[in-house]
From TrEMBL:
It comes from Regulus satrapa (Golden-crowned kinglet). The gene is Gle1. GO terms for molecular function: inositol hexakisphosphate binding; phospholipid binding; translation initiation factor binding. The keyword Mitochondrion does not apply. Coiled coil: none annotated. One of its GO terms (biological process) is poly(A)+ mRNA export from nucleus. Belongs to the GLE1 family. This is mRNA export factor GLE1.
């Protein structure tokens, strides 16, 4: 509910502003310790990324309420936004976007970690689980760049707005595609913020969509084995439908009626 989100936002904002906040039966304030504020910024940013790889990966629409709170906090407390990006880029290098290359002397285990895989006791997580987590984080990022906290000061610019998403898309299409990962990330990103990019960039956006269909999808196909075609087929269908309808569907946007709940 909108009222619940406002409660969460106010509590976080008060905590970061140095006001005393009630939690689990006790009152806490960042002023109680010289590094209190740094610690809270770090842990809060880390928690938002965890929401992406956990909650959003299972419930896609949860990206929007989580993102709108982070967007508002980022606007008032830029340090949280900076640390959020650092955590996000470390956990999901594709959010840069960046495909780490294996350097000489780097162990397989260390390289897997650089690619974003979780490695425990030399066991690498399953591909499906890895893709789900990456998907959740990209969806959260794509939601953040287009949302503003509706009760904030609208005079200033969005702290990390759509221009960053446009840049992400352009850089992504300049990278050599990877099997599995590239098709999934493009689809997630376009499903979440394609509508906002279409409204902002108009004809340039449609040129990009045409480029994806005509030139980039065949490049993904060239590196994709027959057993990995699922996500690529969904990306193909999505781009084709958008180009035919000359419209990108808007998904999961928080309407005015949501904020009255």
């Amino acid at each position: 509910a909108g009222s619940k989100l406002r409660e969460v936002f106010d509590k976080l904002n008060n905590l970061l502003s140095g006001k005393p906040v009630q939690t689990e039966g006790q009152t806490v304030a960042v002023t109680q310790h010289p590094q209190g504020l740094e610690f809270v910024c770090y842990k809060l940013a880390e928690k938002f990324v965890r929401h992406g790889e956990g909650e959003v990966s299972f419930h896609h629409d949860s990206a929007f309420p989580i993102a709108v709170v982070l967007s508002g906090i980022w606007e008032l407390h830029p340090r949280v936004g900076d640390i959020f990006l650092a955590h996000l880029h470390k956990k999901c290098p594709y959010s840069v976007p960046f495909y780490p290359a294996r350097k000489e002397g780097t162990s397989v285990e260390e390289y897997q970690r650089m690619l974003g895989y979780e490695v425990h006791d030399s066991k690498v997580e399953e591909q499906d689980h890895f893709l789900k987590r990456m998907s959740g984080m990209i969806r959260l990022y794509a939601a953040i760049i287009q949302l503003r906290w509706p009760y904030g000061n609208k005079q200033g610019a969005h702290p990390h707005g759509l221009s960053y998403g446009w840049r992400w898309l352009a850089q992504m299409l300049n990278l050599e595609p990877l099997a599995d990962v590239t098709a999934m990330l493009l689809l997630d990103f376009l499903e979440v913020c394609g509508n906002a990019l279409m409204k902002q960039y108009g004809i340039q956006f449609w040129k990009t969509m045409f480029f994806i269909q005509k030139y980039y999808i065949p490049r993904i196909e060239a590196v994709t084995s027959s057993g990995q075609m699922g996500c690529l087929s969904r990306l193909k269908n999505f781009v084709q439908k958008c180009l035919q309808a000359e419209e990108v569907p808007a998904k999961g946007i928080l309407t005015a009626s949501f904020w009255r709940t």
